[in-house]
Here is the input.
Amino acid sequence: MTNHLQLSAEEKTFGMLCHLSALALFILPSFGNVFGPLIVWLIKKDQSQWVDRQGKEALNFQISMVIYSIAAFFLMFLLTLTVIGIPLAILIGLGLAVFWLIAVIMASVKANNGEDFRYPLNIRFIR
Here is the structure.
């Protein structure tokens, strides 16, 4: 979905940062992916409706990914109880991580271009 409004360079930058700040996970392994977008969104949500939408989308996706990761962890744990389940558990974990990284990068690029981005499999907690 393309946004038809004229966006300033600052709006595009902060829209991109809403998504890209999820990479804070690599600095703060415990929920850095949630705190990064949350901080950017809270700072800029009242200054631009578009940045507000991008921040909500990014934050909802990161919260969704935490839930999916917890579910995957339990599934992986159960699978590792069987010898054949270990490779499948590794594939599940890697698949989820790759999906997350690709989605964050795609959203960041789209936002930097001034386009709205909707994450797949996103649970919309914040509307």
